[in-house]
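Retro notes, item 3 of 5
We never archived the inputs for the nicotinamide-adenine-dinucleotide complex last cycle. Fixing that now. Sequence and ligand:
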Amino acid sequence: MAKEPITAVVVGAGHRALAYAAYAKAAPEELRIVGCADPIELRRKQVQELYGLPDDRLYETAEELAAVGRFADTVINGTMDHQHIETSVPLLEAGYHLLLEKPFATSESEMWQLVETARRCDRKVMICHVLRYAPFYAAIRQKVLEGEIGQVMNVQTIEHVSYHHMATCFVRGKWSRKDDCHSSMLMAKCCHDLDLIMWMKSGVAPKAVSSFGGQIYFCPERAPEGAGTRCLVDCPIEGACDYSARKMYIDHPHRWAAYVWFELEHLTEPTIEDKIASLKGGNPHGRCVWGCDNDVVDHQTVCIEFEDGCTASHNLVGGTARPSRAIHLIGTHGEIQGVMEDSTFVIRHIATRSGHEYTENELDLSISGDMHGAFGGHGGGDGRLAADFVNFVRGSAPSISCTTIEDSVHGHLVGFLADKAREERRVVEIE
Ligand SMILES: NC(=O)c1ccc[n+]([C@@H]2O[C@H](COP(=O)([O-])OP(=O)(O)OC[C@H]3O[C@@H](n4cnc5c(N)ncnc54)[C@H](O)[C@@H]3O)[C@@H](O)[C@H]2O)c1
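Structure as it came back at the time:
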């Protein structure tokens, strides 16, 4: 007998929630969107039109939705970082299972509050660690699970955040100030990488953490001589600047469009003139990158020690030419090394008896044609994650990538404590 689709309400109809909700279009027999809650009327109406929702299934807030009583199986919660607790707690108490964006909390106490609520209400919560679904990381995890490199003794990960991503999100944008979004850059950007490290360690608990970092490039002292305050208003050196808002957002009209053109969302097709006027006016993305009020780090290093003696390090660097994520795992019987954007990784084993120092086998995921999946960003990860969420809620066997809130705790905890270690310049032991 055919199964009924799992029903979901979109809460926080920004671009992330809609990326997962799109699975309902790709597989209507699996997922059906039956409601929406968002304070922005335009966004509510867009979801209504997209999924044919009746007027009485539109709500202004998650809290209002929770108060009417549960009418769907699940909620896709794509609100901003600091709203995850206030929106999720009433929804869990109303009986919804949740697909919840990362970071799922902005402090350790918030994290435990949500874990406790999910346990008390006996609800399923899956966290959107999309990189676990990227074929690159899923294939590496599979090799580790198969014992290909033995026990993992050291993990090194690197995230290079490109100059345009850094400028748009962490200097000019909505993750640039801790008092605004409540997440550090480490948590907003690298809770994925910390989660991947924990995943590769197969549940071995982290024991201690240290961290260094700060803001050394995107700060007023670095402003080139003569720099203005807004690129298109008063900057005589705009033409020579790599961070010119014109070069970033007018010459590349689709670059970070969901963030940069937020205030033009009411226009079906904003013209170049609309965009230039916006950058000259109040749009935060028209500001000089050395004259913003950003206070998050632009680089940070985290060191972790695990219960089994394994060590790990993560390097976050913002403002690089090329965006990339790299991983190097060293185990008792071999090593795995690769860069996600290259879609390849190598597996090495010691091989002195064969006359060589080591063997090296390359796995090229671009050849398998599997990097992009059926649809969705993050190397097809968004679509696979939404499909796995349906399995998870149904109680069918989820994939190896499925991240419950409990699975996500170690990565989040290490992130919060790394920030504490960095701020207090000390090693933090994990209870
Ligand atoms: N998994 C990933 O790789 C990834 C990538 C980018 C962002 N994110 C995370 O996704 C989340 C959403 O990011 P976004 O850029 O889509 O955000 P967004 O700002 O575009 O969307 C958030 C929406 O929530 C709505 N909202 C605010 N308060 C609400 C309430 N009380 N009830 C219901 N709706 C409410 C807002 O009006 C807005 O439409 C963030 O936590 C972000 O850090 C995850």
